[in-house]
């Protein structure tokens, strides 16, 4: 059996664990894991929580809008909405007034559940942000936005 020879890399970081994409994914995985833990105690998943947050901010969003904003497929978004509706956290009309979009709204219980879990989720973000010198945070946020924009083009 022949061993493959190492290929020469044109990447400035020889170690894959120092690549920008790897480090972003590592941070995202750590965030997701921490969020999963606190949300599980409230009977929510990360996509369900994100949906509740968005609906509190922008009531009436459609399934397609929510799916895009929570980074899931339309099919997965439908499953998330169905679960939230069955739990009594959102309402959606049976039929659309016009077009096909069904506007979604939080119920009173949805607002209560969101309020109950927000402090725990915001504490996770605070733990992340505290690891960065405050004067560097605006630049980091701008850089992350530019990275996403560069790949969306």
From TrEMBL:
Q: Which SMART domains match?
A: HTH_MARR
Extract the GO molecular function terms from the UniProt entry: DNA-binding transcription factor activity
Which parts of the chain are coiled coil?
none
Limits of the HTH marR-type domain: 17-149
Q: Name one Pfam family in it.
A: MarR_2
Q: Which domain of life is it from?
A: Bacteria
Q: Which GO terms describe its biological process?
A: response to stress
Q: What is this protein called?
A: MarR family transcriptional regulator
Q: Which organism is it from?
A: Streptomyces noursei
**Lineage, uppermost ranks:** Bacteria, Bacillati, Actinomycetota, Actinomycetes, Kitasatosporales
């Amino acid at each position: 059996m022949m061993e493959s020879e190492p290929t020469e890399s044109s990447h400035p970081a020889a170690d894959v664990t120092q690549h920008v994409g790897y480090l972003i994914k590592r941070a995202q995985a750590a965030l997701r894991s921490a969020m999963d833990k606190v949300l599980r105690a409230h009977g929510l998943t990360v996509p369900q929580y994100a949906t509740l947050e968005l609906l509190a901010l922008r009531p009436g969003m459609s399934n397609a809008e929510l799916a895009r904003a929570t980074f899931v497929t339309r099919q997965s978004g439908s499953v998330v909405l169905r679960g939230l509706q069955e739990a009594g956290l959102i309402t959606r009309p049976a039929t659309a007034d016009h077009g096909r979009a069904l506007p979604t709204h939080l119920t009173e219980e949805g607002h209560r559940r969101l309020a109950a879990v927000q402090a725990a989720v915001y504490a996770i973000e605070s733990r992340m942000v505290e690891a960065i010198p405050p004067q560097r945070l605006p630049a980091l946020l701008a850089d992350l936005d530019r990275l996403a924009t560069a790949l969306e083009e």
